[in-house]
Amino acid sequence: MKIGFIGLGIMGRPIAGHIVDGGHQMAIYSRSSPPSDLLEKGAVVCASSREVAERADVIIVMVPDTPDVEAVLFSRGGVADGLTDGKTVIDMSSISPIATKEFAARIAEKGCDYLDAPVSGGEVGAKAATLSIMVGGTQETFDRVKPLFDLVGKNITLVGSVGDGQTAKVANQIIVAVTIEAVGEALLFASKAGADPARVRAALMGGFASSRILEVHGERMIKRSFDPGFKVELHQKDLNLALEGARQLRLALPNTATCQQLFSVCAAHGGSLRDHSAMVNALEIMADHEIASAT
Amino acid sequence: MKIGFIGLGIMGRPIAGHIVDGGHQMAIYSRSSPPSDLLEKGAVVCASSREVAERADVIIVMVPDTPDVEAVLFSRGGVADGLTDGKTVIDMSSISPIATKEFAARIAEKGCDYLDAPVSGGEVGAKAATLSIMVGGTQETFDRVKPLFDLVGKNITLVGSVGDGQTAKVANQIIVAVTIEAVGEALLFASKAGADPARVRAALMGGFASSRILEVHGERMIKRSFDPGFKVELHQKDLNLALEGARQLRLALPNTATCQQLFSVCAAHGGSLRDHSAMVNALEIMADHEIASAT
Fold first, then answer.
1. Which string of b and e fits B129-138 if b means at least 16 CB within 10 Å?
2. Nearest chain B Cα distance for residue A277, angstroms
3. Which chain B residues are closer than 8 Å to A247 by Cβ?
4. Is B160 an interface residue toward A (CB < 8 Å)?
5. What is the pLDDT of residues B44-87, one digit of tens each?
6. What's residue A206's pLDDT?
7. Of B231, B274, B240, nearest to B123 (Cα)?
8. Which positions of A are annotated as active-site residues?
9. Is A281 in a helix, a strand, or coil?
């Protein structure tokens, strides 16, 4: 397939690399200077997103936030200006599910298909081609581009129609944030009550409290290893999608809201670039007590 | 060993049964009429907790809450009145870790050992002898009575010194409650945004959002099966231990506090006897929207 790729940052660059390695021609557009590894593999640099859309059959977008996707798709010289009947736009960014439905409708007016395909797994997953991909769109479009997803991901799910991939991603980020907070409250309670949080964590694994978060992020809290991983400031962006979406949907998310506030406490104390497990630092600051392990 | 058992309710009765089946002599005291199955197996009925303590080497207590344990141990005619040097008291109730340390100190004055050994796994686990047991006390005492725990549990951990078993149990209940809430917020967001919560749950399993709660209680929320399980009113008792303990320890547990409020919303709408996964009902009531699955 002729692939277009827009957004060659930390996530986009390794993803684009895997797709080129899979034998596909690629046209790219990048605001900064294009990555030399992609050029060496034969990727063609375009002067605009519009030119990418003109040259490619499938245009993949991987940018930070909702306004960035809107700009790439619909600003002058954007993707929409270069589309012709039968092309496919895949947005792998993590953005608003509600805006996604609107973007897809506008792309459909051009006679083109749209998939939202946000990922989880971070930079590590992107490099290792082990991303989880949550897809929204039609079964037919999904089946057609599935070979591309197979080049970059492991757990690839068509969740539902357009927007549902983004909805699943938001749901994922809600659960991850609130579960980190749950583990933080529990281990801090244990520590402050005089127990060894490492032994408490061990006693809880395997029971109803068990989760990937208790396993991975609980260990981070105990070992005080807050190098990212997934940064606080990125999770704040995702919780903003959850809370802004909830407001539009008339839905209260009380613990997601509290987690966002705790991330802000964390950020106030210089923690924006720490791993999101550093949310526990906010609880620790409030309690004037740090989790300490005897082991 | 000569075992004394006080508190033959939903949990105590099957636990006592397994211990008698293990070949131990048993003296029991029960406020209500003693269970006939225990009598048939040779358990001796005593007139008071004091008499149980006089007859037994190891006295096990399994009652609802902190004041109940205090009454059984220290009221007139209680366990403490019947203790002599070298006996062991095991409290399998789920009560305050802070009060536990005080009780243990008073029992130590009698020349006796104390273990706190709260369990998780509920009535099902008690009947099947598959309880998780979180123990606080000395290694020596733990090793001596471990054969008794083996008769009723599977995952048996000495967490630390006296009180640390209760601390681990509180930590467990914090994580379970807040994770239920996390899954509730996420699936309700998904449903209200128009996605199929069953497919969203499936997409999230195996990733960072994965947990026993997403697996078991997420399914309950989608299938609307809120028969207990573990009752809302019991989890409210446990969160009270967490919040009251946190107040004494000068520690803020913001999401545990919110979960307790959501349980109260649930209870206000007749949900006290539902499974604790019914916490999602509080979010649904607030959003005027029920999780509905297409599948």
1. bebbbbbbbe
2. 12
3. none
4. yes
5. 999 999 999 999 999 999 999 999 999 999 999 999 999 999 99
6. 82
7. B231
8. 169
9. helix
Dist CA A227 CA B284 (whole Å): 37
Phi, psi of A272, deg, nearest 5: -55, -35
CA A118 to chain centre: 6
Query: Can you give the pLDDT at residue A292?
Result: 86
Interacting residues of A65 by C-beta distance below 8 A, sequence separation 6+: A93, A95, A237
Instruction: Return the C-alpha torsion angle A266, B214, B196, A246, nearest 10.
Output: -30
Q: How many Å apart are CA A294 and CA A195, to the nearest integer?
A: 9
> What are the beta bridge partners of residue A45?
A28
Identify all chain B residues contacting A213, using CB atoms and an 8 Å cutoff.
208, 211
SS3 B180: helix
The rounded distance, in Å, linking the Cα atoms of A188 and B63 is 27
Share of chain B above pLDDT 70, in %: 99
- Chain B residues in contact with A132 (beta carbon < 8 A): 203, 206-207
Q: Give pLDDT tens digits for A129-176.
A: 999 999 999 999 999 999 999 999 999 999 999 999 999 999 999 999
CA distance to B34, B55, B87, B142, B229, per residue, from B27 (Å): 11, 7, 14, 21, 30
- How do beta strands B119-120 and B113-116 pair? unpaired
Q: How far is A89 from chain B (nearest CA, A)?
A: 21
- ipTM comes to 0.95
Report yes or no: A39 and A150 within 8 Å, Cβ to Cβ: no
Do residues A135 and A158 lie in contact, with contact meaning Cβ atoms separated by under 8 Å? yes
Q: Check: CB of residue A123 under 8 Å from CB of residue A93.
A: no
Q: Look up the pTM and report it.
A: 0.95
Contacts of B245 (CB under 8 A, 6+ apart): A189, A193, B96, B97, B98, B170
Position A229 scores a pLDDT of 87
By CB atoms closer than 10 A (0-12, 13-18, 19+), residue B143 is exposed
Asked whether the beta carbons of B94 and B165 are under 8 A apart, the reply is: no
Question: In whole angstroms, what is the distance from residue B104 CA to residue B91 CA?
Answer: 10
Q: Does A232 touch chain B (CB under 8 A)?
A: no
Write out residues in chain A with pLDDT < 70, as ranges. 294-295
| A residues 29-88 lying closer than 8 A (beta carbon) to B | none
Q: Inter-chain contact A207–B256, Cβ cutoff 8 Å? A: no
d(CA A191, CA A202): 14
